[in-house]
Write a structure and sequence with these properties.
2 copies of one chain form a homodimer. Chain A folds into 2 domains: 177 residues, 2-Layer Sandwich (Transcription Regulator spoIIAA); 411 residues, no CATH class. By secondary structure, chain A is mainly alpha-helical. In chain A, helix 9 packs across helix 14 and helix 19 runs antiparallel to helix 20. At the A-B interface, helix 2, helix 10, helix 19, helix 20 and helix 21 of A face helix 2, helix 10, helix 19, helix 20 and helix 21 of B. Chains A, B: It is found in: Membrane. Chains A, B: This is Putative sulfate transporter 3.5.
Chain lengths: 649, 649
Amino acid sequence: MGPAAGDGDRGPGAAAEHKVNLSARQPFVESVRTCLAETFFPDDPFRGLGSRPPAARAWGALKYFVPALEWAPRYTAGKFKYDLLAGVTIASLAIPQGISYAKLANLPPIIGLYSSFVPPLLYAVFGSSNNLAVGTVAAASLLLASIIETEVPPEENPQLYLQLFYTAAFFTGVFQTALGVFRLGLIVDFLSRSTITGFMGGTATIIILQQLKGMLGMKHFTPKTDLVSVMRSIFYYRHEWRWQSLVLGICFLLLLLLSKHLRKKKPNLFWVSAIAPFLIVVIGGVFAFLVKGDEHGIPIVGDLKKGINPLSISQLTFTDKHVNTAMKAGFLSGILALAEGIAVGRSLALVKNEQIDGNKEMIAFGIMNIAGSFTSCYLTTGPFSKSAVNFHAGCRTPMSNVVMSVCILLVLLFLAPLFKYTPLVALSSIIVVAMIGLIKVREFCHLYRVDKFDFCICMVAFIGVVFFTMVIGLSASVGLSVVRALLHVARPSTCKLGSVAGGDIFRDVRHYPHARSVPNVLVLQLGSPIYFVNAGYLRERILRWAEEEENGSKIDGQDLQYVVLDLAGVTSIDNTGIGMLVEVHKSLDRKGIRIALTNPRLEVTEKLVLSGYIKDIIGEEWVFLTVKDAITACRYALQRSRSKDDGEV
Amino acid sequence: MGPAAGDGDRGPGAAAEHKVNLSARQPFVESVRTCLAETFFPDDPFRGLGSRPPAARAWGALKYFVPALEWAPRYTAGKFKYDLLAGVTIASLAIPQGISYAKLANLPPIIGLYSSFVPPLLYAVFGSSNNLAVGTVAAASLLLASIIETEVPPEENPQLYLQLFYTAAFFTGVFQTALGVFRLGLIVDFLSRSTITGFMGGTATIIILQQLKGMLGMKHFTPKTDLVSVMRSIFYYRHEWRWQSLVLGICFLLLLLLSKHLRKKKPNLFWVSAIAPFLIVVIGGVFAFLVKGDEHGIPIVGDLKKGINPLSISQLTFTDKHVNTAMKAGFLSGILALAEGIAVGRSLALVKNEQIDGNKEMIAFGIMNIAGSFTSCYLTTGPFSKSAVNFHAGCRTPMSNVVMSVCILLVLLFLAPLFKYTPLVALSSIIVVAMIGLIKVREFCHLYRVDKFDFCICMVAFIGVVFFTMVIGLSASVGLSVVRALLHVARPSTCKLGSVAGGDIFRDVRHYPHARSVPNVLVLQLGSPIYFVNAGYLRERILRWAEEEENGSKIDGQDLQYVVLDLAGVTSIDNTGIGMLVEVHKSLDRKGIRIALTNPRLEVTEKLVLSGYIKDIIGEEWVFLTVKDAITACRYALQRSRSKDDGEV
């Protein structure tokens, strides 16, 4: 007979060497403060400020919000040398990329240049990354276009189309600032690396396909982005194909690929590949001007107006009819831009061992997008290609963005009309080469090898983008990621422990096949928080473990008499979870099986004590610090009850 | 100087007594199978079938889907005695409750009787609980009414209003069956106990308030359910108050409360409180007939048609205009009905030590609701009050539902017209007394004491229902619960471990204030899965722990040289999570700090090995089975490097 429940047997507890500290409490206010701080201030930005005098504290806080105050006073001519070089280099990249991505979004090319002028200035003041170079990005440009085009076709109403881009940029800015201010950076955390890999790969694929329009010198094209529509469109308008464009395009492509190859072979020559796009634009422009390309099958960019950004604040459109589209476009592209910008900033900072504050970055991105929407810019962020060039060119501070901005200013004031002759095919080949690097086949293989589910998430994004729309690909992949996260929560893993290393250490029997189980005792390890989502599952699962163990041990002629629950991995428990433990206790108790707990964490101990579970239901003497103590106690109690039985016989 | 990274030092690994099993693998197919089985078949319904011959297996599977085949062949006259008694008792409760709840939903009272005839028969065949008594429930009735009333006011178009109830029941049935068939019972898991407690309490409160209409004998009333509207409506129509109704109502209330009190004092007399509502209906009816109540301020139910349920299949409305309302009503009330029915079934089964299969119950509920919608019934489930009476009356099998059904059949065929004289005030007092028990003040206090956040979730549901609408209360509370679940995932707890009990055991220093930290070593315990949602947070947190420790140890004059990550609580890791560990390694490595891992679980070990993290980045010799081994190895390596330093000096 097993020991009867609630027989007041205080033996086992006494046998244990060390006890669980049942009286530890976190004061309520303190625990709420900690919880809020961990949730919203995981980086604890103001640490170390508390001890300083008020003026220093205010200055510290101001420096936190305006990082330029941190680096500007210590800025030296020595640093400027590096920043000047880096700034000029990225400016040479910003011109072709700005024009290209604006064309990709069906916007007037000049908007791309405008967008490389104002936002970098603001980022230099508010941004916290020393490596990020600000500009427009391909994926977000295409995403914005694909959403806004369904509402307002750019051919029918180019003015309204442009206005909606400004409005979307405004909403993006407001949204990003709000995320930063309310410390909600964790929303970006829901875009997993797998999602971004797949989404970027898919986007790069469809962008490359779309460049067939430019490469073939076509005039008509589908506004849709999916593979099938694009290919159909290309062959439908095959009478528009121009061999002149194609030949020129292939030459440009080869030049660009060569420069890229050069960088791989000789990293010191990175600047060749950095200015190659600019060279292509110049060479292409001169060539098109000389041969009168536009009359001979080589379409050119067309007129670019001289002068700096006009104000666009009066063009923001908040009418009922279009505001939803603008908000949707702003929200989605904003999330995407944040994810890219923050990831780029973080990975570059890591190399230099600097710190990036995600929430501060959001505020900086938000401010530059709001200001951008007032000054004829569309969405900007920190694109990977430009930032990497900035980094390799040896930038020291955000001053390189200022230099780039000044270069663009000069272009806008004096040189813009010269870019009129840039052949579209040059832009297309620049985009194609920029995009090729984003299809990371090696990363796909790595994912497949390491984690099949991550691979699925990645492929859903890729296939969704390539065959459906960008929004579908992105949301299906994020949805799948969130379902997976919730499944982790709803179906936490449990495992049976056996003793390894002579009985002192208890480990998963699946992991350590030589682990031996303890007679009459089932040791279960529970992981993850126990709460309402998984309480029902855990109850069934624990009872099933017990049932399986009973069936197994009946064959061996040994009763199951104790279930030891190892709670070390249980980080928290809620009311439903405690209710579950009570029910498990009742069910097992009816079969004469006792529950012992080992090593509950602070938060869990506190709640189990407060709810009376430990005192009234299982008894304080059945809570142990280690599994070993619990097993010792179980053996001791078993022996006592057996010798009692023998005595009675 | 700390040991240089990657110095190929194989010492520490050799010092450890036991090793982590790095070669354990789960075959992919096997792990997918296990994962799917745990997700959708946590109760493993067909266990034990595999080994039997095909015919027995088919019979076993059929018995699984039709539990009646399990108990019917072994049914005896002895059991029937008990079921007959229980069935008659619950029939006596079903009549007044059926009429009352139909009135609560503004439906013709006879619908309530219809709904107690067909569904119980079906449940007896497909249901797996021996204790559940099927019938309509107050909360879901009011919820349905509150949703459908906003679309079709019952006064304006009673026929369409009724049709939408049938249609909603149909959708409820389809939805419940689908959940059961696709094993999606876990959706119900997202309704936490706290949500249900608050929601039920709030619903009971507004239902009691609504009964003031019946108690005061009023004719006009607001269709809204919130406290403010109800109270305003009561005083607005105060000229309709009838003292006769009120006096009669108070008498009935006292009688019912007395019978309830009696049950508490003498549990054997439970049947008194069980048939009390029926007695009230009979006494009230006779009284109203004798004094011609309807002419003297005591409104009565009115005509009830003799005869069994007419077919309603042709009345289901799937027109574009109303189908959304019906679907919404069906979905929400279906979830609610499932949550109540399954919770009731489970808690009663627990007392008798029986098992309830949630997914099977869903299919049974679904079938009975679909069939119900074809035969003039509205939503039914297993209400708590009726099931508890069934249980106390000693039911043995679902046969008691058949007995109840036959009783209701007899009433429908012969006695229905007699209930015409039932005073509405009698129904109101029955509802009030049934609802009082659902406001669980003691549970609220318990929640407040044990878990403040659970208390908030509960109060949001309560206040939402009482002051706004039932849908708002329910969804706000569920939303808050889900946010909390996601926060658990996004912000997992980490803690610093110190040695207790003489150095062999390592525990949270906040929990065990006497735990001593190890010089030069920081031991961190990570909990919960590491993946994309929390990877960013964990990186920041681990680095911040290290930074704090460095600052702390500088004061003591001791460098931080090792960070030991205890992964015992990490149940899984994804690709982003591994990337995070790589970044943490890089950041720490740059400061000359080494990472050691202890006790990774099977799933985690597998992925860390496959991704090359263990071999290429931290080195196999820095993975240990226990924290103690890791500390020993760190000390050993430290001593070696110190004696080397000394030697060099």
